[in-house]
Every structure is written in C-alpha cells, then in structure tokens.
Amino acid sequence: MKALLLVGHGTRDDVGNDEFVTLTERVTARLDTRGGELRVSRCFLELRAPWIVECAQAYLDAGCRKLYLSMFFLFAAGHVKHDIPSSLHPLVTRYGDASFYIGPPAGNAEGILQAAISRVQDAVREHPAHSDATVLLVVRGSSDQAAWADVLQVARALSDRLSRPVLPCAVVGVGLRFKDALCFARKAIIVLPYLLFTGNVLREIHELCIAVQREGRMLTCTSPLGGHPFVEDYFYQQATYHANFVKYAIE
C-alpha cells in the first residue's frame, strides 16, 4: 500500500482553499484507487488543516511504507527546499523502514506553461486592442535567487512561444517589483498572475491593476492558473507516474 499526499500551501482565503480542493478532487477522481493499494489525501503546509505531518502520520500508522508528496507549488523557494523536508524529518527518523518521495515544483512544467499561454491568448481574443501588449508575468516572489532564476526561465520560454515581450516581476522579494513594472510598460498590458489559486497576493495584484486602469491605461488581468484543464492534466500525470520525484533522505 502506498499513499499520495496532494500538498498545497494553505491560505486564510476561503476561495483559494476551495479552488485547491476542487483541483485535487478532480485529480483524485481520475486516479485508480480501487483495491486500496493507493490512498490519496490532500493536505496543507500551513494556515489550514489537515497538515502534512498529520496526514503522513495517519498513513504510516496504517501500514503505508511508501509516501509520495505531489507539490502544488510553482517554484522551489523556502517552503519546498526547507519547510516541507523539515516537517518530514521526525517521521523519517521514527519510521526508518518507510520511504518518502517529494515531487518537483510545477512552475516550468509544460502543462503549466501551456495554461499560461492559453490565458494570454484568451485575453487577446477578448480584448483585440491588446494584440501587441506586453505581458507582465507576476509571481509572489521570495528572497531565493535560484527561484527567481527559474522565474526568468519561465518568462523567456513564454516570450519565445507567444512572440511578444514577457516581463517577469514579483510582488515581494528579489527581482523587479510588480508596481515598478507597471510603470515601465508603456503600451497595453496583459497582467498574468503566475499563481495557482486566489489569495492575498492576487488581491494585491488586482488592487494595483485597478489603480492603473483608473489612470486610463489599457490593462487586463488574467485568472490564476489552477482552474485550467492543462494544470489538472499536469497534476494528474504527476500523481500517476511520479515523474522527477526525489527520495527524501536525512543529510
């Protein structure tokens, strides 16, 4: 018997949590859980229960000795690199015969890129005046330089495939700040929140977008990515085949 944990960050925003629940329910419905050989649960890193450790502990006590954590995160900043492994450390120590496998962040995965491209293309179809718009790729941001390098890689990939400028920026942390990027972009703007779900970060993005629109500038903002079918397909593939999952070991 093995267990699959669908791991989200968690937010105080009920809409964002509902979006995560909906996505994980759709992924779970497509998995073959007949016979009880695969157990699936969703859990959170923080702010909402059930916690990662709580779910993992329950499966270990029930006899599971292979646990796979599918990460509903876009970039490998502090949470993915440090917080989640640290939360598993006591369980790895206590259950020496169990194996823990952690999936990769999703930010530069093909399915996520396709969802982002689709969001921009939909925006252009709905707003023809934005046909030559600059895309602002907006992430939450962090102090992690390697994570920002991944954001730059995503921006380059999207720019090549959309054949238009894509300017990466962040609400907080290293890199160009979103509020400054809004000033640099002089023509029509498509704001692409590179986020999976609704939350405080998206609200802050929307507030800045509204302020720019009130100035009479041409700007449209797309929806977050989590509700797109390409995103569901990506996480289903991850849950099924565990591509690029890494076995966690205490260093």
Put the structure in a nutshell:
The protein has 251 residues and is an alpha/beta fold. The chain has helices spanning 14-30, 52-61, 78-94, 110-126, 145-162, 178-184, 200-214, 229-241; strands at residues 2-8, 38-44, 66-71, 99-102, 134-139, 166-170, 189-193, 219-221, 246-247. The strands form 2 sheets. A 5-stranded mixed β-sheet has the order 2-1-3-4-9, sandwiched between helices. Strands 6-5-7-8 form a 4-stranded parallel β-sheet, sandwiched between helices.
Tell me what the structure shows.
The chain has helices spanning 14-30, 52-61, 78-94, 110-126, 145-162, 178-184, 200-214, 229-241, and strands at 2-8, 38-44, 66-71, 99-102, 134-139, 166-170, 189-193, 219-221, 246-247. It folds into two domains: 2-105 and 228-247, Rossmann fold; 110-221, Rossmann fold, CATH 3.40.50.1400. The mean pLDDT is 93. The chain has 251 residues and is α/β, with parallel strands linked by helices. A five-stranded mixed β-sheet has the order 2-1-3-4-9, sandwiched between helices. A four-stranded parallel β-sheet has the order 6-5-7-8, sandwiched between helices. It has eight helices and nine strands.
Quickly count the helices: 8
Domain module tally = 2
The share of residues in helices is 40-55%
Strand order of the largest sheet: 2-1-3-4-9
Label the CATH architecture of the largest domain: 3-Layer(aba) Sandwich
User: What is the succession of H and E elements?
Assistant: EHEHEHEHEHEHEHEHE
Shape: elongated
Mean pLDDT over the full residue set: 93
CATH topology group of the largest domain: Rossmann fold
Q: Low-confidence spans: pLDDT under 50, at least 5 residues?
A: none
Supply the helix-strand structural class: alpha/beta
Quick one: biggest sheet? Answer: 5 strands, mixed
CATH class of the largest domain: Alpha Beta
Radius of gyration, rounded? 19 Å
Strand content range: 15-25%
Cα end-to-end separation: 27 Å
Number of strands: 9
InterPro entries: CbiX-like, Sirohydro_Cobaltochel/CbiX
GO molecular function: lyase activity; metal ion binding
Protein name: Cobalamin biosynthesis protein CbiX
Keywords: Lyase, Metal-binding
